[in-house]
Amino acid sequence: MKDAKPKKPKQDIIVEVDVRKLTRFVLLVLMSVLLVLCLFFFMRRFLTVQSFSVSGISEYDLEELVSASGVKRGERLYLLDCDEIEERILEECPYLSSIEVSRKFPNKLLFEVEGKLGLWYIEVAGARYTLDGDLYVIAESKDTEKMTKLELPHLKSAITGELPSFGASQTEVKKTLELISVLRESSLKSRLSAADLSDRTNITLEVDGKYRVLLGDATDFSSKLRVLAEVLEQDQVKNSEGGEINLIAPGAPTFRPESKASEEKDREE
After folding, report:
1. What gap in Å lies between CA 54 and CA 60, rounded to an integer?
2. Cis omega (within 30 of 0) on the bond before 164?
3. How confident is the model over 162-183, as pLDDT tens digits?
4. Burial (Cβ within 10 Å: 0-12, 13-18, ≥19) of residue 17
5. Over the stretch 43-92, which tens digit does the pLDDT of each residue have?
């Protein structure tokens, strides 16, 4: 048996650090970083706005937003108050739901927008006002082609950013808003040309610009709308040029084509 080799004694590893050199190195790094930061903050004060861009969907194009912002090319980019610019644009552009203004290095101002969608319109004193889905007034407008005309009871006024002033009582306002909520959730909403809710005992709708719908009072309103959707799918109705649909008795709906409806109206007059 061979003799075991004697183990070598462990040797401690000693690392000598030159504290002065390390200190100088750390200070050099810190000063370099500080110099770069100072240079960056100093230089950005002189960076000017040279271009604009927009993202999101709204009624407004880029030039309209730039004009509303009041910002001119050549202004110092990093001295602009973005919150103030946002408030200014929202005041000038009522069809905007929200906007976020941000700086994009080195010289661009970015507008991120979300537009309001006009779903309804009302007429007050000969002027048309568009309303969003929650019935708040967006703005006065002449372009209401794809919106539903809404006739409200005792309509008084329309102020941008507020609900229209209507109704002889709070109960009337509440009941009318409930009817509008049902219409808004209906599968027929996109086909509605007009909704006359000025008299809850004699509600009428216009569908596709050619079907006049008599609903009577507000009883079983949701059920009447479901029956209306079924009637509109009947061949007799789909193949006609329009007419009158009577749903006052939802269990017995009737349809009179345009020619017969016109003759009946002439006899009544």
Report:
1. 10
2. no
3. 999 999 999 999 999 999 999 9
4. exposed
5. 555 688 999 999 998 889 999 999 999 999 999 998 899 999 999 999 99
Q: 90 near 67, Cβ under 8 Å?
A: no
User: Are the beta carbons of 204 and 222 closer than 8 angstroms?
Assistant: no
Contacts for 52 with CB less than 8 Å, ≥ 6 apart: 62, 65, 66, 71, 108, 109, 110, 111
CA-based nearest residue to 54, from 44, 42, 68, 41: 68
Over residues 213-242, mean pLDDT = 95
Residue with tokens 């927008």: 113
Question: Could you give the residue ranges of the DSSP H alpha helices within the chain?
Answer: 19-44, 62-69, 82-92, 170-185, 221-232, 235-238, 258-268
Burial of 247 (0-12, 13-18, 19+ CB in 10 A): buried
| DSSP class of 30 | H
Give CA–CA dist 70/84, Å, rounded: 10
Residue 30, token pair as written in the block: 């810190």
Q: Is the dihedral of CA 56, 60, 61, 62 positive or negative?
A: negative
Cα gap 69→52, rounded to integer Å: 11
How far is 67 from 219, CA to CA, in rounded Å?
50
102 phi/psi in degrees, rounded to 5: -140, 155
Of 146, 237, 257, 244, the C-alpha closest to 192 is 146
Q: Residues in the chain, how many?
A: 269
